[in-house]
């Protein structure tokens, strides 16, 4: 009875802490542990969602991101610190943070224009092809989209609509549901520009009227801007090839208690509206820490699709021109449970049947659905080419973890006893008739020759009387 009770307790603990597929160990780095009071709502939401939070400072002597070669934490939240040239200390160097990402750890980085970005963070961002202003304190302002209540003079509190879908065919994880027109407040923020890296994806872009500058060095006339308009990214993500996630939030203040439920007044409006910073922060942190946008492959199955043949699952060898069916089952993790994965509109989940290059590229169609998964299938005829082939599903989309599944099979030629008899092909009938005529003629000739004995000549001369 005691063991049964212990089992149920452990199961309950597992359910409570199964908030993130990547784990629940969260390291929060602050300049001072007391600074967490300014982010109590944001951190309280993380705690309520089941994270085991550890608070440390960059100068902590007990801080260890790795222990015996393994990650000590599953996720890291970096809030602004006052560290300058010395960076974040020997335990949070760019190499260590990159090793953390390579070990499938997730990082959420928050910046602030009032605090210079540590040099180690600048170096880390450069490794990821994310660029900050040279002064490390560039301020984003907008003279057309600002809060009249708090930034009537400096215009450094941007009032922005929630981001919509990145493009057609990409899932939208960061818009409030349902959308009611509430804005996002982006106060005292630092903008970023992105390189050509294919792994980088912006979540929130600056409006066309925004720009970044250093208010301490530049006067009213701005000759050289760091970036302006859509060049500026306010919230940027990077998903590594191992599906580890890294997010840069240009304004740490937007995560603070002050702006979670603040009321802002847009230019040209008479009444104020509440922000959706809390919902947006939940979506950004949930995506970064693996609570949304996670795909799982449940099973893969392929078999012959021919009558009278052995249709065993996942055979190792096929024959050329076989009819086969391939199926893959996918689930999507949404906050605290697995649900069936649905391919977005204007997008396709594709199967490649390839050797060195694809012989077939087919769209997989949903064929079977359950409470927590959807199976996608495609049927096709194998090419007239023997060799080593791969069933490959390579599904890589923004904001979804990578799905790359490859199953190798052999495709043999047709055996001698598997060819159909010639008389079943109408095109062979003239040749068969020619062979029959030749054989018949030869036999007739032989018979005629054998039974056509020449007449024997007479013996002696003429008979006399």
Automatic annotation (TrEMBL):
It is found in: Endoplasmic reticulum membrane; Membrane. Residues 25-288 form the OST48 N-terminal domain. Residues 311-453 form the OST48 middle domain. InterPro entries: DDOST_48_kDa_subunit (IPR005013), OST48_MD (IPR055459), OST48_N (IPR055457). Keywords: Endoplasmic reticulum, Membrane, Signal, Transmembrane, Transmembrane helix. GO terms for biological process: protein N-linked glycosylation via asparagine. The chain crosses the membrane at residues 428-451. Pathway: Protein modification; protein glycosylation. Pfam families: OST48_MD, OST48_N. It is a single-pass type I membrane protein. Residues 1-18 form the signal peptide. GO terms for cellular component: oligosaccharyltransferase complex. Subunit of the oligosaccharyl transferase (OST) complex that catalyzes the initial transfer of a defined glycan (Glc(3)Man(9)GlcNAc(2) in eukaryotes) from the lipid carrier dolichol-pyrophosphate to an asparagine residue within an Asn-X-Ser/Thr consensus motif in nascent polypeptide chains, the first step in protein N-glycosylation. N-glycosylation occurs cotranslationally and the complex associates with the Sec61 complex at the channel-forming translocon complex that mediates protein translocation across the endoplasmic reticulum (ER). Component of the oligosaccharyltransferase (OST) complex. Belongs to the DDOST 48 kDa subunit family. This is Dolichyl-diphosphooligosaccharide--protein glycosyltransferase subunit WBP1.
């Amino acid at each position: 009875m005691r063991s049964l009770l212990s089992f149920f307790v452990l199961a309950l603990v597992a359910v409570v802490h199964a908030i993130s597929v990547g784990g629940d160990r969260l390291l929060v780095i602050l300049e001072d542990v007391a600074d967490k009071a300014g982010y109590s709502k944001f951190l309280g939401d993380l705690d309520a969602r089941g994270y085991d939070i550890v608070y440390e400072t960059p100068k902590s002597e007990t801080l260890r991101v790795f222990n015996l070669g393994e990650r000590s934490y599953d996720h890291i939240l970096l809030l602004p610190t006052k560290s300058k040239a010395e960076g974040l200390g020997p335990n949070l160097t760019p190499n260590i943070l990159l090793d953390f990402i390579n070990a499938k750890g997730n990082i959420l980085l928050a910046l602030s224009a009032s605090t210079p970005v540590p040099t180690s963070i600048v170096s880390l961002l450069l490794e990821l092809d994310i660029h900050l202003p040279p002064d490390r304190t560039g301020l984003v302002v907008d003279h057309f989209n600002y809060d009249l209540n708090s930034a009537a003079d400096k215009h450094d509190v941007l009032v922005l609509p929630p981001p919509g879908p990145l493009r057609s065919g990409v899932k939208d994880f960061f818009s409030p549901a349902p959308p009611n027109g509430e804005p996002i407040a982006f106060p005292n923020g630092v903008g970023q520009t992105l390189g050509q890296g294919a792994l980088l994806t912006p979540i929130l872009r600056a409006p066309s009227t925004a720009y970044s500058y250093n208010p301490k060095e530049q006067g009213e006339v701005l000759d050289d801007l760091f970036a302006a308009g859509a060049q500026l990214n306010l919230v940027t993500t990077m998903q590594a090839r191992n599906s580890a996630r890294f997010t840069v939030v240009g304004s740490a203040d937007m995560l603070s208690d002050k702006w979670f439920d603040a009321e802002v007044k847009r230019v040209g409006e008479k009444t104020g509206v509440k922000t959706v910073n809390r919902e947006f922060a939940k979506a950004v942190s949930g995506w970064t820490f693996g609570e949304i946008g996670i795909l799982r492959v449940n099973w893969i199955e392929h078999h012959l699709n021919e009558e009278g043949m052995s249709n065993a699952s996942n055979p190792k060898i096929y024959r050329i021109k076989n009819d086969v069916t391939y199926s893959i089952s996918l689930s999507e993790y949404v906050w605290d449970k697995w649900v069936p994965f649905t391919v977005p509109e204007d997008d396709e989940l594709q199967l490649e049947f390839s050797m060195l290059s694809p012989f077939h590229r087919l769209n997989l169609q949903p064929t079977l659905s359950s409470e927590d998964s959807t199976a996608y299938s495609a049927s096709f005829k194998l090419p007239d080419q023997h060799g080593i082939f791969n069933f490959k599903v390579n599904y890589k989309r923004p904001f979804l973890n990578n799905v790359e599944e490859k199953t190798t099979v052999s495709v043999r030629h047709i055996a001698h006893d598997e060819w159909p008899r010639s008389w079943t092909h109408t095109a062979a009938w003239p040749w068969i008739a020619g062979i029959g005529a030749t054989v018949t003629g030869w036999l007739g000739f032989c018979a005629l020759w054998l039974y056509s004995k020449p007449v024997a000549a007479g013996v002696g001369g003429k008979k006399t009387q």
